[in-house]
Write a structure and sequence with these properties.
3-stranded antiparallel beta sheet; single chain; about 110 residues; alpha+beta
């Protein structure tokens, strides 16, 4: 019999893609995972969290949420990081050459927060 306890289930949340107004050295995007997107974006804007986002905020570079995937796990976030095609997943950077690398989970969830 399989173990179905809640402790062994992966956390389900949202993977989000941020687009920077200007590149920070080589970085133009950031992808992250959260279970509370508005709170997480607020923490990023206040300079807390990932080192890259702290540096982006200190450099006074603006950013927006350009894409989200809801109902996914951290494993999905790792897939996105490993493929290294954030520019192709970004609707702003792709400009007409956009090809979804992963299937869209929830159409219409892209947008600004």
């Amino acid at each position: 019999m399989a173990n179905t306890s809640k402790e062994n289930r992966p956390t389900v949340g949202t993977v989000y893609l941020l687009h920077f107004a200007h590149p920070y050295y080589h970085a133009r995007h950031y992808a992250g995972f959260t279970t509370d997107l508005p709170r997480r974006i607020g923490r990023h804007r206040n300079g807390h969290g990932a080192r890259l986002m702290v540096a982006v905020v200190r450099a006074e570079i603006g950013f927006i949420v350009v894409r989200t995937w809801d109902g996914v796990t951290r494993a999905f976030e790792r897939r996105i990081h490993r493929c290294r095609h954030l520019t192709e997943m970004c609707p702003i950077c792709a400009r007409g050459r956009f090809r979804p690398v992963f299937p869209r989970r929830n159409p219409g969830t892209e947008g600004l927060i």
